[in-house]
Amino acid sequence: MTVSLTKAQISAPASFYGLWNADVRYPAVGFGRTWNGWATPIVPREVLAQLIADAPGHRVWFHPESGVTRIDTDQETGSWQHYASIAPELRGNVQAYPLESLGWTFLEDESRRAAE
């Protein structure tokens, strides 16, 4: 399965997946420096919302004015606790979120690069 964006938003130059589900590919507008060998995708708001929706035990809110996200988890305590906040940055005309602060294990989808 691939999560896609509408044409009006962006044409994603790359994609990635999380080790917990290698069958789902998410589009990225770019990548930051690797973190301990793992990819650090930078994604638009819609992709971040879908990624968190797909992650068991996590939920996300976006501040209506600033776009800053608050990600909560209930995985360790059974009650919702703050996990991370991510401030968006402008990438071209897209409000994008660098995922490096999540500390999750992402890999860049090399098969897409090989096909180009």
Placed side by side, the strands forming the largest sheet appear as 3-4-9-8
Q: What general form does the structure show?
A: globular
Structural class: mainly beta
Oligomer: single chain
| Total count of helical runs of at least 4 residues | 2
Task: Flag low-confidence runs.
Answer: 4-11
What does this structure look like?
Strand 8 and strand 9 form a beta hairpin. About 7% of the residues have low confidence. The protein has a 4-stranded antiparallel β-sheet. It starts with 13 loop residues before the first strand and ends with a helix. It is globular. The protein is mainly β and 116 residues long. The chain contains 2 helices and 10 strands.
Task: Give the structure's gist in a few sentences.
The protein is mostly beta strands and 116 residues long. The protein has helices spanning 45-54, 110-115; strands at residues 14-18, 21-28, 30-31, 41-44, 58-62, 69-73, 81-86, 89-91, 94-98, 106-108. The strands form three sheets. It has a four-stranded antiparallel beta sheet with strand order 3-4-9-8. A three-stranded antiparallel beta sheet has the order 2-1-10. A three-stranded antiparallel beta sheet has the order 5-6-7, with helices on one face.
